[in-house]
From TrEMBL:
Entry-linked Gene3D superfamilies: 3.30.70.20
Protein name in the entry: Ferredoxin
Any one GO molecular-function label of the UniProt entry: metal ion binding
Superkingdom of the source species: Archaea
One Pfam match: Fer4_15
Amino acid sequence: MKVEFDEDTCIGMYQCVVEWSEFEKDKSAGKAVLLESEETDDGVFVREVPEEDELDAKFAARTCPVDAITIYDDDGEQLIP
């Protein structure tokens, strides 16, 4: 499973931080940060989701009020949002 996080879309509600420990608050920027992720050419941050964290990652994506988090299965099919 893979997660993509669009930092530009994030509005800093930090609900993802509550749901998954791999998100952290960046109060100086007013946005969340996806830990251990790599930035793509279009400013989206991507990382693999460990199997034991899949449920938490899904909850983080579902709670984002602006759909800044997208979850993909191993075949590249979009699961959330």
